[in-house]
Amino acid sequence: MSARVGIVTFPGTLDDQDAARAVRLVGAEAVPLWHADHDLKGVDAVFLPGGFSYGDYLRCGAISRFAPLMRELVPAARQGLPVLGTCNGFQILCEAHLLPGALTRNASLHYVCRDQRLKVETTATPWTNAFAAGQEIVLPIKHGEGRYVASADTLAALEANGQVVVRYLGNPNGSLNDIAGIRNEAGNVVGLMPHPEHAVEDLVGAPSTDGLGFFTSILKKLVDA
Amino acid sequence: MARVIVDVMLKPEILDPQGQAIARALPRLGFSGVAAVRQGKRFEVELEGPADEAALEEVRKMAETLLANTVIEDYTVRVDQ
Amino acid sequence: MARVIVDVMLKPEILDPQGQAIARALPRLGFSGVAAVRQGKRFEVELEGPADEAALEEVRKMAETLLANTVIEDYTVRVDQ
Amino acid sequence: MTDNVERAAGTPDEPMPFAELGMKQDEYDRVKEILGRRPTGSELAIYSVMWSEHCSYKSSKVHLKQFATKAPKSDALLVGMGENAGVVDIGDGWAATFKIESHNHPSYVEPHQGAATGVGGIVRDIMSMGARPIAVMDALRFGGADQNDTRRVLPGVVEGISSYGNCLGLPNIGGEVVFDPCYIGNPLVNALCVGLLRKDQIKLATAPGPGNKVVLFGASTGPDGIGGASVLASATFEDESQAKRPAVQVGDPFMEKLLIECCLELYAADVVVGIQDLGAAGVSCATTELAAKGTGGMSVDLNLVPLRDPSLRPEEILMSESQERMMAVVRPSDIPAFTAICEKWDVPATVIGEVTDTGRLVMTWDGEVIVDIPPGTAADDGPVYERPLREPAGQAALNADVPDRLDRPADLRATLLELLGSPNLASKEWVTSQYDRYVRSNTVLAQPADAGMLRVSEVMAGAEPTTRGIALATDGNGRYAKLDPYAGAQLALAEAYRNVAVTGARPLAVTNCLNFGSPEDPEVMWQFAEAVRGLADACRTLGVPVTGGNVSFYNQTGATAIHPTPVVGVLGVIDDVARRVPTGFTTEGLRVALLGETAAEFGGSEWAHVAHGHLGGLPPQADLEAERSLAAVLVSAAAEGLLEGSHDLSDGGLAVALAESCLARGVGASVSLTDDAFTGLFSESAARALVTVRPEAFDRFAKLCADHEVPCYGLGATGGASLVVEGVLEVTVAELRETHAGTLPALFG
Ligand SMILES: Nc1ncnc2c1ncn2[C@@H]1O[C@H](COP(=O)(O)OP(=O)(O)O)[C@@H](O)[C@H]1O
Ligand SMILES: [Mg+2]
Known about the structure:
The complex is a heterotetramer, with 1 copy of chain A, 2 copies of chain B and 1 copy of chain D. Chain B is an alpha+beta fold. Chain B has one domain (2-79): Phosphoribosylformylglycinamidine synthase subunit PurS (Mth169, Chain: A), CATH 3.30.1280.10. Chain B contains 2 helices and 3 strands. Chain B has helices at residues 17-28, 53-67; strands spanning 3-10, 34-47, 73-79. Chain B has a 3-stranded antiparallel β-sheet with strand order 2-1-3. The mean pLDDT of chain B is 94. Chain D has a domain at 581-749: Phosphoribosyl-aminoimidazole Synthetase, Chain A, domain 2. Chain D has 26 helices and 28 strands. Classes of the chains: A alpha/beta, B alpha+beta, D alpha+beta.
């Protein structure tokens, strides 16, 4: 069976082509999904790429979460469809309440683009099963609003349930508990600020190919299923 | 035509780095006597009709679902005189 | 301790892309009856002392030089009750 | 009441505010002669903006001609100067289009918005050629790093470029940040954009085919940047009082991103006959230029222009510089398809007129004819000035004040650290980390590489992936140009050309942004003429044609002009990006070699500037034949896979190049110098590069150098945790890094 990964384009999405290339690199099929359609096209998983949907105006992800496609995606995700949101995709997942907490202005008040050391905290998600628990990886980050915040209760629950998926080694934005990515309770929905799709080829993008693991993970999950 | 103001501020327990940066800069710029600054958003919503209760209810819903992220922000809605 | 509110809005003749994007999105989100939206900033300035005329004058100066970019923005200063 | 053609014909003596709009009496008389009557207010609006320095190049034209008359033969050139941007053939059916443009004054007035809209403007130029914009660069000049206004201007400029470019999804792959007190009050913000397209899909700004529709699409028109136009609207014809008209334009990067995707889909659907972006002079420029290059006529109903502010008068609509707008010429049968694509992307589109064969541009307002002109007279036949030139009074004395009298340092280690930590040579990461360099996943090289490099791949749906790449660098040294504008312009080109070559890419074509003071000052005009002559001569020698560019005059405060600052961008091509050469020392155990000759050249040098605040003498010699040979060696060696790393020598000389090479990957090196160590380390002789070669490949490499008559000096080897210059200095890489990295954060937070 060929794994079909849907890649969503909102107005202002930037990393959709990059994500599609990464999906194809591991041998899966990339299926473009358009924000204004009410159709998930029967995909096996969905990737919400980064960018500046609706210009990031108002708040990152605030307007996108009302897209017609999201009306299909939210219930599907609640029923177990694997979903990965990176950067703006993560922000949209939080705004849509598929993930707890929120992403706010970097503590430095500057946009930051850099190669970031990270620790994979859990492999118990469809997007991280190809990593080793505790594995150190390098992925690019590039965002102005990536500081993860949540109430003390939510944070405690995230930690207690093992819902922190990746943590920063050297906090670039003031995120609470150095959180770079989280999952929902069920584990199928993952959001992270770093960009795995920019770290999949030797020659271009970040000086690592550690991002491939996210894509081989979902392929493995879908093919094994 | 009426105008409704929606003020959105970070909840008190959420760190506000922009407000802090301003507060830190003030003494350097020669301003004293400020204990703290918080920065939020202000929306001016021009209604097509009057600001009656029904319209205000719409704006409140808009604030609750769109203009504010109630996970981290509080909002107030009021008619501009 | 007193609190002074500084509202900063883009001058009316200046393009407000954020407000426009919100206004354009509203009908799609099921909100009707809104003619226009403008987005600005709201600052809550906590004073160490009372909000007397001297303090307000300081805040006005602060608004003029730091909180607002008077090339493109207008501001108002008022005491919060 | 609005002034119209009939009224103008009947009131020939009515005074018009041409002077307030920056027009000279004789220019105004020419307008009257062309029209055979006085112009209407709207016509005056059009002529005044189209004949402004900015749009007509009236002071620079006579000089810029040399870029064409002296242009080297190049098979690569597909579209030359005169269009929105030049286009070059980069092989495999692909073409690249690139251009650099200034947004200096707006960035001084409102740094964030000024710089942001500078990026927006140059991106639309690239879009209008039919290309997908794929990257941006920014060449910046600020006042002294510790000067107060720099603290206002720099963070705003960087934030503006960052917010706009990042939001468009365009990687920022390079640029410059230079500080000099001469730019206080006149910062330079030069933005470059590069785009890719298939060779057979070039679009041009032309309006052919009578009956074809003229479509305005993108943002609505507001009172942006029309401070001047209110003179017209209020002073003469309007009794109702005018709202305030801002001189500042605010950008909407989200709208621009939608425009990019919308345009590309319009091109793919083949529903665009001609297209033009709206930049300075907005609708005036787009309509006159499209009409002049097409069948020659156009009729426009200005009431149809969608307005953000309904109080705008026709004169103001014509002059508005609202951003994120484009104008297309579309066959009537394609209008439904065109509109559908615009709707998909939420981009408002409105038919405002039609192409005609009357030879006249006719505009109406409320049913009355308010413009009726031959469009070419506004677009192409503007005034041309041969402005007087005079060598600056102090030039000879400046050149005589050679740096020989300056005390040479005893402690070269301290000098190296002083230079490396000085604002001009310190790490620019505080700036570049605010720019997305990864988006689109085709970035092969970006900061801190000598040139940015992009893979040409998956740019458009259905296009085959390639291994091909393009490289780009911008350079310009105002101090050199001040000492000798002819040589300074050549050195700017030479450095950008060299920066492209050290990555292994073959330099192909040139764009330039000429930043000068007032053309009405004969001494500035002399600098300008010399710089253009130097650049044109150098382009011919190096075999790289100028494809386009921009002139920015009036960068001065009172009578004091900035240093003449020609900024030159060079684009190169590499057949296989896997052969690209990284910057600096990549690993231990490599041979380190210096290519090129070193002489004691300190005029305008970074050392003289930092250590003595001195500017005098002559800049380094621009030996273009040597540059050409050096590039040939670098490109051949890269293609053969002989180079492990490379870095060009420029500001700060060999010492700084060695330090930066160590910093690239944290690999040290040990080298020795034979002659005078101070000269060897800090002279800024041009046509030099530092390379690393595997020991077993060194003979082959040395032979290649000999074949091209490029001097090659083995200096030592990479390795260790320090930079060691035998018997002269030793610094750990950690200390180098601390010195290099700390300066900008300490200044700007
Ligand atoms: N304003 C800028 N925007 C983007 N990149 C920049 C900017 N300024 C400097 N850089 C990048 O930082 C690196 C170092 O800059 P610089 O020291 O000026 O290089 P060089 O000495 O080779 O000209 C280069 O890769 C350059 O492209
Ligand atoms: Mg260089």
